[in-house]
Each structure stands twice: as structure tokens, then as C-alpha cells.
Amino acid sequence: MKNTKREKKFSNKTIERLALYYEILITLPFKKKYISSEEIGNLAGVSPSTVRQDFLYFNEIEGKAKIGYEVTKLKEALRNIFKLNSKTHVVIVGAGSLGQAIAGYDSFKKSKVVFDSFFDNNPNKIGRLFKGIFVRDIKYLKDYLKENRRIKIVVICVPPKEAQSIVNLVVDSGIKIIWNFSPTILKVPSDILVEYEHIGVSFYRLLFKRKTIKKEIK
Q: CATH top-level class for 88-200?
């Protein structure tokens, strides 16, 4: 019988949910052979039908009635979706608390994400190791990226006033993907992918949801 499943373009919300499902699976505190859409939904805060709908368009993801999804195969399918079956080499600019927290995030180790180097302008950090990663002088960033073409993503963890000049160097080096934690909008060419992480925006969104919850309680 012909398989009628098909891939489609996903909304950002769907991609976020798929990423959350993957995080849930790789951080399960116990070994589990099968997991149901109900269990995934409870852990992700979504309905079981949403979980099933999200998986519907992938040939690799198939559940068994009354049993659920095989955890090993489900993790492998999600790795394929996010292209995590080979190493992803990353550089972090800014070896402060935020940069170190990102480098130390345990899930990245399970997903073949490799942090090749920190870059910083602080002489007290240059030449040292943080989270087992060497800190290089920021003035060598462009040359390092040009010489190490395996690097595909650069993470920006610097103050807003420094971010644009650093991103200019990153773009000039040939990098096409930037993960920006600096609270500023960057000017980049149209072929550069920038993912923004606005901590303030997330906090304000939380405050708004709190207001909604208070209304429901009343």
C-alpha cells in the first residue's frame, strides 16, 4: 500500500513543539521502550492529538495502537528532522555567565553539538578554559572562522553595543547562521539566518500570562 504521508512546511510553533519532544525524550530520567502520545503531551503541556498531528507528516514516525511510539526510533526520527546525526560545530562569542551556561547545557552533549571555542576581549579570560573550552582573543575571530570551515553556527553573548561589529566579522568570514542572545536587532544580509533569544520578551510574555490566569481565577 502506498504511503500517503508527506512532509509539509511547519509553523514556528510546530518546530518548537518537535524540539520540545526531542528534549523530553533525551532527558527522560528512566529507560523506557515505548512512550504514548498522552505521556508526551503531559510532559510537553499539549494535547495527545496535537502530538499525533505533529508526527503525522513524517514517514519515520509511526506509533502502535495502545502501545505508543518506540522511544529509540522516535529519538532517531527527531534527530533526522533536526539533522543531529552528525556533529554540529559551534563557536560562542562571549565567555561570560550566559556563554558558559550555553556551553554547559547537557542536552547539547547528547545531540552531537560541539563547541569548538569561546572568543572574548577580557584579558582575564583569554587563554583559559571554561567548561573545557578554550577562550581565544576576539581579534582572531574572523581568521579562525575562515580557517575552520567546519564551524556552522556562531552564538552571540555580548553586550548590545558590541554585537553588530562582531556580527559583521562573523558574516565577513562566511558564516550563515547566527544565534543571538544580545538584546539588539542585528543588520545582516538577506541570506543570513539569525535566531533571536529575547530573555526580556519571554519574561514579559510570562507576566501577561499571569494576568490571564488571575482573570480566570476570578
A: alpha beta
